[in-house]
Protein: NADH:ubiquinone reductase (non-electrogenic)
Organism: Chlorobium phaeobacteroides
Amino acid sequence: MKHVVIVGGGFAGLNVAKELGNKKDIRVTLIDKNNFQLFQPLLYQVAMAALNAGEIAYPLRIMLSKYKNVTVLKGVVKTVDPRNKTVYTDFGEMQYDSLVLCCGAKHHYFGHNEWEEFAPGLKTIGQASEIRRRVMEAFENAERSQDVAEKRKLLTFVIVGGGPTGVELAGSIGEMSRYYLSKYYRNIDPKLTRIFIVHSAPRILQTFSPELSSKATRALEKLGVQVWTCSLVSRIDADGVQVGNEKIEAGTVLWAAGVRATSIGKTIGFDTDHSGRIIVEDDLTVRGYPDVFTGGDQAHFALPGETSLPGLASVALQQGQAIGRNILLAFQGKPKKPFKYRDKGQMATIGKNAAIAERGNVKLSGLSAWIIWLGVHIYYLSGVKHRLFVILQWAWSYFTFGHAARIVNNEWRFYTNVQEPAEPAEREELMANPACVFAADARQ
Amino acid sequence: MKHVVIVGGGFAGLNVAKELGNKKDIRVTLIDKNNFQLFQPLLYQVAMAALNAGEIAYPLRIMLSKYKNVTVLKGVVKTVDPRNKTVYTDFGEMQYDSLVLCCGAKHHYFGHNEWEEFAPGLKTIGQASEIRRRVMEAFENAERSQDVAEKRKLLTFVIVGGGPTGVELAGSIGEMSRYYLSKYYRNIDPKLTRIFIVHSAPRILQTFSPELSSKATRALEKLGVQVWTCSLVSRIDADGVQVGNEKIEAGTVLWAAGVRATSIGKTIGFDTDHSGRIIVEDDLTVRGYPDVFTGGDQAHFALPGETSLPGLASVALQQGQAIGRNILLAFQGKPKKPFKYRDKGQMATIGKNAAIAERGNVKLSGLSAWIIWLGVHIYYLSGVKHRLFVILQWAWSYFTFGHAARIVNNEWRFYTNVQEPAEPAEREELMANPACVFAADARQ
């Protein structure tokens, strides 16, 4: 009986488990710090109060229940000794015959970790709830404030980073203030609302074609979003954001700029690239360790002369399947196969009826892209029930703009005020290695 | 233009606002610490992962949006000076012509506040999330534990208090372990699960007839719940609960025993009863202050020779309407009318197809009571969308027992690990006066 340990239950890890499910003489242990798979591509909708967290998080055990040889354990992997084939977790150690590390990515503040407090990122349900709390709290405080300057600051939102997540957040805040604020708040002039995307490159969504990128910019501007390109943030604090010589006074700053692989690769001593991603061979094994695999946002996979594959859900999903098949081949004593990526294209949404989608030479924008966006996301969402509920939520919002989930709770102070139970030293270790938040959205 | 200030947006406060909505020459300010109304009767389902929090919380502004003279402000009322008709809040002060205090109730540990850490109560979304986290975490830890004694402790759940909330929690945990644990967890023997209700009185649900109360006991026992009556808890700590000479080693203890009105009545200096409830006249005004009203769990309303009305949603709802009508009469210079309670009966649910309902001499149990329970709760829930979603969630669970919301998130550490942003002194003040959690469930 061979034992496969999978660390991380995102798109990559989950698909490894599925490939190995109910295979003879193999038992699988999947370890994740959460007992659910988070559908990261829709996380921004939880942050924007359009969906409930439970609608995009699906219990791993239910997803894998038909595979009797798969056990899911909730826990944190501290490190791995690849020479002795041992995984060290917060609930003991574990031997493996084959190890899969798919721990995803987390935010990266380019050496400015002090910005995190003022500009939370969007990778976990806790962060989504914190962003929701901040945005809704800004509206609440603006509603009760008597001071126009204060109101103006409270109603100013800066999103750092113009990749898909930044665009989605900015578009949602634009729609919210345009349709929701004006209808339900008595003391807010929606004209006071200002939303900025501050982006370092010459154009937002730079992985798309220039044509689609400028269409997205125009769609954002229609929603009242100001897009600042070639703009570098030099400071973020409680008052707002410093961009070159300009200071944007803002009550809410959100971070959608940089990601970095979880640092477990470094901790173990594997070769990593500048983003902390583990460099893998063409069969997705770690260089020098034929029984250790990695995929998804954790992996740096590049064909000769090319850059690494982007942090997309479809990359993670395909790599997970390939890892599963290669483990089976290896156990049968057969040679592993090199991974071949089938490009499924990319898409981003701006708001109601507005999205962009690109696949090869096909470029779509507006309503058609938006409908494809909806369909693809529903298709990849796990579970019939989740699909039904998300479709209903969207249909409701589409016709009413009345997201009933727009509640804010002071108890939702996950982010800045959570006292971690771990000791400082241990905590640092855990922070360095959160096994595993899956991040399908490292698409900058 | 008369100004009415309502503190608290529960069933009572909300119905005052509705009565005064769009009335000439009246403007209304509703202050609540949350921007939503929480449908407290279904809060235990959020704690038990059967519903999402967003499905039972409805934004006050949307509920009141058709009343142009009503403004909702999110804030905390610190105190009131009834002689100068001034309300002091965390965002400034405010004059009123008429004041309504409906701040509900909170948990009461009978002088043992140190128990709260080990036995959270169920009044807010944060507490519901914390209870969910503890219960699901117990299952997760039991799944990964190798030690039978530890597993047994982790799978032991004690609910202190045998009122409707305690019964609902115990029944849900019973169903969860029977149908869900056995199906999806590989290393848990559901037979190890033990659930206790520890209740001080000779029978649980003592506001119901003895016949229904014993039917509920039998339904609980069918789900594996042990009901200990005439049992007093003398100690709660990390190891479990001490009941007389017996120690129940338990990983999870939940508090459903005592409630107490929020202390704003005492802070202001109004006459209060032993539970902190403000004693009101028959027209729901505070004794000596004809322009201050109170209702719901905050109010002690008793006809001569009778005990105070119970903390039921229907009491709060009717009192809210009566307060609204009396304010209108007072503004017109007419005499206020005494409040008359129309008894709508009471009900409690144990699990699938099992509930009890009583109204006058009509006593129902089992499937019929359960169907009525469903219907009444759907009817009183706010908003077509919430009703639709809750019906769908229930229908899904009914046929599958697969609550897909059964996720646990380490970031959901609202309860014990939340560092409050307020200063200690201020915090105590806030804690003493959380304006306002509405509590429809003080039904012990």
About this structure: Chain A touches chain B through 60 residues (CB under 8 Å). Chain A has two domains: 2-107+260-344+419-442, 113-249+345-406.
